[in-house]
User: What shape does this take?
Amino acid sequence: MDNIEEKIKAIEEEISKTSYNKATSHHIGKLKAKISKLKEEQIKRSSGGSKGEGFHIKKSGDATAVLVGFPSVGKSTLLNELTNAESKVGAYEFTTLEIIPGIMEYNNAQIQIFDIPGIITGAASGKGRGKEILSVARTADLIIVVLDIFNIKQFDTILRELRNVGVRPNETKPDVKIKKTRKGGVNVSSTMPLTQMDEKTIRSVINEYGIHNADVLFRDDVNVDQFIDCIEDNKSYVPMMVLLNKVDLVDRAYLEEVMEQIPGAIPISADKNMNIDALREEIFNNLHLVRVYLKPQGRKADMNDPLVIKKGTTVIEACGKLHREFVKNFRHAKIWGTSVKFPGQKVGPDHVLEDEDVLRVILKK
Assistant: This one.
């Protein structure tokens, strides 16, 4: 482990000493690829000896959010305010020694929220079982970073640790297609100008991964780090929101100063139940959930118990959530709502549902 750490530091030092220009960009790209490969190896090794000790979480509800933060920032108190979880709360470090789930009910949706143990610097490389803890964030639908208003510098550390474990908060996966071929070398094509990498850099980076024959198509203008992510194809792109906790202890001027440093952060006080209702709404909105009401044949739609699905879900995907027979015997569907031009419109399996649509599924007899 120490050997890998030393190798990473040595390469990072070489990068810092190399002035970045067109002549050196391909060399820097190659070095960044080497670092990324070493970090992946480090993560694999850190989890290798802990078989059976990982955090096994059972997902339930319509979506999953995870609270991420350092010890003693108030995650446990916040979980209790948001959900029905009974989390042990104490004003000392490492109170939460296991992952505690709770269910937040909002707009007919059941949102599972996990409180994970407070992370520490170096978590992604295995310190304090941090790699296992952070792995929960990889599979979440939403990451909620909880910061102590008096210690916002922890935000940079949290972002770094999340990135080191393969999470790309608030990023979308770049549209880059890599198709390996048997011969012909590396052929690069793009639908737009590539302003952050030249072809020499692209070939240098992809060769570092042992790929010498491939067609590479760029539909996004990506940088070297994003291109490396595309080659490795093992990153999680998860939405993230940031909370500033304990704002009841500061004055308005201090709060405004902090808000300028972290734009978009939501000020709350878990202890005093400040802004918690607004936070519930923000969590729901950030999860991009859609409510669909079901209308059985000859009856009115049940407007009290919607099917909660993710935005972009098609009719046939919604059928899969209801019952496999609905998929197997699907004929067509009728929709009332904003996703159609007129009420009761007949649609096919690929029609995308919108919030508060009414759906009637017609099956083959």
Summary: The two ends are 62 Å apart (CA to CA).
